[in-house]
Specification:
This protein folds into three domains: about 280 residues, no CATH class; about 110 residues, no CATH class; about 60 residues, Orthogonal Bundle (Arc Repressor Mutant, subunit A), CATH 1.10.10.410. Helix content is about 40%, strand content about 20%. A nine-stranded mixed β-sheet has the order 2-6-7-10-1-11-12-13-14. A three-stranded antiparallel β-sheet has the order 5-4-15, with no helix packed on it. Helix 7 crosses helix 9, helix 12 packs across helix 14 and helix 12 packs across helix 15. The termini are far apart. The structure holds adenosine-5'-diphosphate, magnesium ion (MG) and zinc ion (ZN). Adenosine-5'-diphosphate binds next to strand 1, strand 10 and strand 11.
């Protein structure tokens, strides 16, 4: 690349509180339009906001998850602007005194600094109906609690930006702060981007691409904007500082507003909400209540359970899958066999079916029972795969499925020994060849044994009995 790309992100995450941030309306996603509103969140005069303490706790957890300093004093401000999705004509946010600052998140070898995290309220949603040629306002989302996470301009490529959003989303999910469903808008990202000559220390003029709602859009928007800015600089023209909208269909950016017409938000301290004061005891209590974070889980899987690093990473990267793994090993702690069954067989089936762990027809205890059958040698590895298929397609209990399908292996060596004797007697030529030093015929004799004994015999026992019979001096 000719120029160096410089990127800083502003990430909005909806917090998982039951009710909204300043009123008692439900904060859940969806609902029939304008049914989840009250005088407070629709901004009627004379109403007063009451701060949801659960939102404060979650914001602190977000700060802890992203390595931030948490401030014992923080306060709200009014950000004034008029827009149809904002019936109060101002947004309550934190400007001068955010709750968290100075965090750091590692992506691979690189550390990305977090400038601040502040609490604010979400706005409503406008639905543009091109057919009827009208725009409709849905205020259900007004007052849903958000955090805004602002990074320093430490990112240098679209891939780094993508990795950071993924890492932050994962940590917020683990901390229980946000479900990070970008497709539902519970995590959205503004990308600030500028370019400069390699070796240049001053930043170039940046543009800000608003409201990207998928990892793919983030990458595409950055790649497009790099090319657009590079073409300008190549032609000796300046980049204009402006806010852009990314058009998903065309893959291009379009100006929303430029700096000259930028809003003056006339921030001032919010008079209706007292500052947030957090004592050491409050902070300690929230810290104690922090769930296990991805890095800790990774350490548990590798150091305590001995899982290969790549497998551990793959599990941890999918919280639902990883939670499922934990639930299985809580019943039957065969760490590696459970991990491999989940990562190979189960994941392949989930991917093929396009479904998620949450939609499985069986419980973690069923998978535990299946691995137990396999580990104790009661069923073969192939039978284990077959039973998993049945569980996946129809549900059920592994012990019953094994019983009903004749998968339970006959671990009675006497029968296998008898069969070995018969097979050897029936194949004197092969036996002589083996004893004469040809290992090749072993496979043929194994085949004969398996045919005779059927799928209910344990292949390991067959192999052992056959080998012993062949090694035994001729009677
Ligand atoms: P504003 O308050 O106008 O949005 P900030 O200084 O808070 O501006 O920056 C917002 C975001 O823009 C941050 O994520 C920051 O890292 C990023 N940023 C600032 N300057 C640049 C730049 N020159 N190039 C790319 N990103 C930048
Ligand atoms: Mg900004
Ligand atoms: Zn309300």
């Amino acid at each position: 690349m000719k120029y160096e790309t410089v990127i800083g992100l502003e990430i909005h995450a909806e917090m998982l509180t039951h009710s909204k941030v300043f009123c008692g309306c439900t904060a859940e996603f969806g609902g029939e339009e304008n049914t989840r509103v009250c005088p407070r969140c629709s901004g009627l005069p004379g109403t007063l906001p009451v701060l949801n303490q659960g939102a404060v706790r979650l914001a602190v957890k977000a700060g802890l998850a992203l390595g931030c300093e948490i401030h014992p004093y923080s306060a709200f401000d009014r950000k004034n602007y008029f827009y149809p999705d904002l019936p109060k004509a101002y947004q309550i946010t934190q400007f001068a005194h955010p709750i968290c600052t100075d965090g750091a998140v590692d992506i691979g070898e690189k550390t990305v600094r977090i400038n601040r995290i502040h609490i604010e309220e979400d706005a409503g949603k406008l639905v543009h109906d091109d057919y009827e040629n009208v725009s409709l306002a849905d205020y259900n989302r007004c007052g849903v609690p958000l955090i805004e996470i602002v990074t320093e301009p430490d990112l240098r490529s679209a891939e780094e930006a993508r990795a950071l959003v993924e890492e932050i989303a994962l940590r917020l999910k683990y901390a229980g702060v946000c479900d990070a469903r970008m497709e539902q808008g519970s995590l959205r990202c503004d990308v600030n981007i500028s370019i400069r000559q390699p070796g240049e220390t001053k930043f170039g003029t940046r543009t800000e691409i608003k409201n990207l709602n998928s990892l793919k859009s983030i990458v595409r928007a950055i790649e497009y904007e790099y090319t657009r800015q590079a073409d300008l600089l190549d032609a000796g023209r300046p980049v204009i500082q402006q806010t852009l909208h990314f058009n998903e269909n065309h893959g291009t950016t379009k100006p929303l507003r430029s700096k000259e017409e930028a809003h003056d938000y006339r921030y001032f301290p919010e008079p209706d909400i007292p500052p947030i004061l957090l004592s050491d005891a409050d902070l300690a209590a929230i810290r104690d209540d922090m769930p296990e974070m991805p890095a800790d889980r990774l350490r548990r899987y590798t150091a305590d359970y001995g899982l290969p690093e790549a497998d551990a990473r793959q599990l941890v990267a999918d919280k639902a899958l990883s939670d499922f793994y934990d639930a299985v090993i809580a019943v039957y702690p065969a760490y590696k066999p459970v991990a491999s069954l989940i990562l190979v067989e189960l994941l392949r089936r989930l991917n093929d079916a396009g479904s998620t762990v949450g939609e499985l027809r069986f419980a973690p205890a069923d998978l535990a029972a299946l691995v137990r059958l396999s580990e104790t040698g009661e069923i073969s590895k192939n039978a284990a795969k077959e039973i998993l298929r049945t569980l996946f397609e129809a549900g059920g209990h592994p012990d019953e499925i094994a019983e009903a399908n004749g998968y339970l292996m006959n671990n009675d060596t006497a029968a296998v020994e008898a069969a070995a004797a018969e097979i050897l007697a029936a194949n004197p030529k092969a036996v002589a060849e083996y004893r004469g030093g040809s290992q090749k015929v072993f496979g043929f004799l194994m085949g004969q044994m398996c045919k005779k004994l059927g799928k209910s015999a344990n292949p390991q026992i067959i192999r052992q009995c056959l080998a012993e019979a062949l090694e035994r001096p001729e009677a």
